[in-house]
Each structure stands twice: as C-alpha cells, then as structure tokens.
Amino acid sequence: MGIGAGGTPSARRRCWVESANDPEGDFPLENLPFGLYEEERLRRHTCLAIGDRVLDLLACRDAGLLNATQIVGLGPRGLGHMELWRAREIRHRAAELLSDPTYRAAVEPHLIPQSEVRMLPPFGVGGIGDYTDFYASIHHATNVGRLFRPDNPLLPNYKWVPIGYHGRASSIVISGTEVRRPSGQTKAADAEAPTFGPSRMLDYELEVGFFIGGGNALGETIPLEQAEKHIFGLCLVNDWSARDIQAWEYQPLGPFLGKSFATTISPWVVTLDALEPFRVPAMVRPEGDPQPLPYLSAERDRERGGFDVNLEVWLATAKMREGGQAPVRVSRGNMKDLYWTLAQMLTHHASNGCNLRPGDLLATGTVSGATPESVGSLLERTKRGAEPLALPNGEQRKFLEDGDEVILRGWCEREGYTRIGFGECRGVVGVAKV
C-alpha cells in the first residue's frame, strides 16, 4: 500500500527499486525513514532508506526533483528543525518518484547502495543536544526491583510518574561503532572497600528512542493532546549498562558512570506516519493500579498511544563469528508492553517547563515482556548472573564478554499492511582501556 493522505496506507504502489518490494525487508515504499550519511570525500547528505539503497535528498533538490520549501530543515548537518508536515511532504514526493517509472532515469543517479555509505547519527555528529532515558516498562522495573527488593520490587512512585534520568548525549554512537568496556569503581558484597577496574557485569538494554522534531520554549509545557506533534520519529537504542559500577554508585542520585560511557542508536528515523497502521491502545493497567493524573490522561492516548513494534536481541560471540556461526536470538519482546506511552513521557518531561529542542533524544528504557524470553537485558535474563544463558555452541553468558556483538532489530507487521522495519542497531564489545 502506498502512502496516502495523512501518511496512512492507500492502494499499493510497486517500487521500481526492486529490493524495496521484498516482503521481509525493512525499507519498503511505505516506510522511507530519514537518515544522514557520509561519503568518501567526507561530505554529508540527508537521505531516505529505500530497499537496500539510500536516496540523497539534497541531490534530488539540486536536480529539481524536490523543491526548496520541502527541503527546509534538512542539510549536510543532518535533520534540523523538521516539522512533521514537511517530513510528510518529502515522503509523499519520494514515494511518487520511486513508484512512477517515468522518474527512474532522473532519480536513479541519486540512489546509492547502503553498503557503500557510512551512516551518521541522524542529527549529525554532536548534533543530538540532550538525551533522556525513561524506565517505562513495568515488567523490567519489576524484574530488576525483585532482584534487589524481593518483597517490594516497585517503589511507590512508579505507577504515578514516568521515571527517567538525564543521560549523556556526547557518548551516543551510531550502529556499528565498537563499544569499549568501561572501567569504574565496584564493590563486592563482602569487601571492606571498593576497587577500580574494568566492569565485569557489562549488559545491553533493548530500547526504543524517539527524536524531538519541534520543541517548546523554556517555561512552557506540552499538553498530552499535542505531544505527538513534537515527535519526529523513532529509532532503536541500546543503552549499554555496567551493572556492577551502577550498583555501587546509583545511591543517592541515580545512574552516572555505569551508563554514560556509550549508547548505540540505529541510523534510521522511522516517522509516526509510517507507524500509523501499527498503533494499538496504551497498555491496560491492572485492576487496582492508579489511573494517570489528569495531565497524563487523554482519550486518544488511551485508545491509540501504543505501538505494535516487535523487538529482538541477537548475540554473536567472537567464537561464534570465528566458526562461521550465525547470531542467536536471545530475546523477543514488543513495544506495546510499555506502561507509559511516548506522549506521556514527553508531556511529563516538559511538565515543569523544561525546554525540549529539535534533535533531542528520549528513550523508553529497557523494553521487557512478561516471559523470560521477552526480557530486554541480561540482568533480567540471567537473574544477575545466577542463571547463565546457554548458547548453542556450548558457551554461557552471565554478562557480556569482550568480542560479543549485540544486534537489536525491530519491525512492524499487520495483516493487510506492508511490513516495515527499523534496520539494525549493532555494537561489538571492545577491550577496556586501562
């Protein structure tokens, strides 16, 4: 189905880029996510993903295929102040160009194989101004809480307020970047004093991120009914965590060096328009749970505030890669299991007058489901290392070891609609620098 009015599917149009018609592919005509790539001569170009290619948007503008008004907000630094209506215009025009064979000769010179480009963070190197990570999965919060407080896993505020912390934007890296094992202070339970050294409990966190397209002025709030107008699109996030460093430092002020060393994101920003067919109601709260306070409650958000996004974690150890073995899936969950919606997180973030700016990244926190196979971290899956994960080649993992590669994947599918995906979010664990 092609892109119809308002970004919703209409009659299916076939793309003349043949790889875009693969039913198992991530980037059909119905997706067209935004990104930023760098070519060999270090020139940067905003682009869309289509099949196994990237479409250079600035080159299309220069060729007269996109007009100057449409391209405002895009440039060599990446996505700037990109309003949703303008992104919608670009995607509609690109869908027309890529489905009508009469445009093929004019457009084809501006298509480049994804394998030949180096993707950058979509808002440019250093362009992500701020990063906030939430704790929006009640399954994750309960699982982690139970490890430390078996009789009282959830703290009293969890069901009332979307919990988050301010992360480190400078250490956000693009998929494929090596992540060096961090060093820090840790303290064994039976030790009298802490020691300093490489983390022994390095973990991944399966998350979904969302970029701010239009912000708010300092001192102004964003009502829940307006929140999604400020969201440009979504990506995958691996918020790497050093659990042993985190356990020693987090009281009384929360995460610090156990989180700030690296956060990996996927390179493509999937728009809310592309995700429209895969909306679902917000998670139904169990009987007895408090309902959100009025500023976090709206009928439309309850009815359509969730997203049915399948999420997976795959693991490939160094030994597996050396032996030519394929990565193994270690988790499969879904974004619809989040306790708080994206709109609720954004509205709460701005509720004190905090000014959000274009290019800011907010993330959901670890997305976990109700079953052991659907949890989004090794901390939960191995019960803090007490129950190691057995891999098909005989290896075991309590936490990540040097050389391990973590691969996150996400996609949406629904009967009667074309499957769309997010691409991969990859990172290999490098040796600590001491």
| Count of structural domains | 2
Overall number of strands: 28
CATH architecture descriptor of the largest domain: Alpha-Beta Complex
Q: Note the total helix count.
A: 11
CATH superfamily of the largest domain: Fumarylacetoacetase-like, C-terminal domain
CATH topology of the largest domain: Fumarylacetoacetate hydrolase, domain 2
Secondary-structure-based class equals alpha+beta
Give the amount of beta strand, in percent: 25-35%
On the 0-100 scale, what is the average pLDDT?
91
CATH class of the largest domain: Alpha Beta
What's the Cα radius of gyration?
A: 22 Å
Largest sheet report: 8 strands, mixed
What is the terminal-to-terminal distance? 54 Å
Uncertain ranges: 4-10
In one word, what is the shape?
Answer: globular
**Share of helical residues:** 10-25%
What layout of secondary structure does this protein have?
Elements lengths: L33 E5 L5 E7 L2 E4 H6 L5 H4 L2 E2 L2 E2 L4 H16 L4 H4 L3 E3 L4 E3 L10 E4 L3 H11 L15 E3 L5 E3 L4 E2 L2 E4 L8 E4 L3 E2 L2 E7 L18 E8 L2 E2 H7 L13 E3 L4 E2 H4 L3 E2 L18 H6 L1 E2 L2 E7 L1 H5 L5 E7 L7 H9 L10 E3 L14 H4 L7 E2 L5 E2 L7 E8 L7 E11 L4
Parallel strand pairs: 8-24, 10-18, 11-28
Antiparallel strand pairs: 1-2, 1-7, 2-3, 3-6, 4-5, 8-9, 12-13, 14-17, 15-16, 15-24, 16-18, 16-19, 20-21, 22-23, 22-27, 25-26, 27-28
